[in-house]
Each structure stands twice: as C-alpha cells, then as structure tokens.
Amino acid sequence: MIGIIFLRGNARLTYPGGVLHSLLHYAFSFLDVPVTASAAERLAPSFGGRLHRFAALEKSAYSSTPVWLAGFLAEIPGCVSCGSWTI
After folding, report:
1. Which of 12, 57, 65, 78 fits as disulfide partner to 37, beta carbons 3.0 to 4.6 Å?
2. What's the CA angle centered on 62, arms 78 and 21, to 5 degrees?
3. Angle, CA 28 vertex, CA 15 and CA 74 arms, to 5°
4. Domain range for residue 6?
C-alpha cells in the first residue's frame, strides 16, 4: 500500500494505483511548462521585458528541471535523500 497525504489525512492506494498516480503526476508536471511559459510571456511586458515565446518556454523548462529530477530520484528505493540534492 502506498499512502498519499491529503489536507485532512492520508489515503492508501494499492501498488498499481500508486504507480498510476505517480505517472499522471509526472505527466501533468510536463504539461505545466507550456502553461507557465504562456503566463510568463504575457506578463513580460509589464516588467519591461519583451514578448518572446521560445525564451519564456526555455526559462519555464529550465526552472522545472530540479523538480523533475527530485521526483524521479524520490521514486528510486533507498534514494529518498538523493532527491533533496537537486533542490
């Protein structure tokens, strides 16, 4: 059983449910990059920047890399502390 912490307590998942949850969480973290890049691109002129889609996407992906590495390393048994090295 794998547990997930919610606001009011823990929920127990079966092994396949936990794997599915991890994969979906990882996939949605990749979908977050274009959304964040779009927001950064639209906000850039208000901070004196210019509209540049590729630069916004590049910065968004670059800033998400430590989170992806920590999430990947946290899934390796016995390597829980390895995830904190990347942050």
Report:
1. 57
2. 45
3. 50
4. 2-85
Rounded to an integer, what distance in angstroms lies between the CA atom of residue 18 and that of residue 1? 8
Domain count, the chain: 1
The confidence band for 4, taking pLDDT boundaries of 50, 70 and 90, is low
84's tokens? 């904190």
* C-alpha span between 62 and 2 (Å, rounded): 30
Summarize pLDDT for 14-73 with one digit per residue, the tens.
788 778 877 887 788 788 889 999 999 999 889 888 888 899 999 888 988 887 777 777
Q: Specify the DSSP class assigned to residue 26.
A: H
- Please count the other Cβ atoms lying within 10 Å of the Cβ belonging to residue 79: 12
2, 17 contact by CB (below 8 A): yes
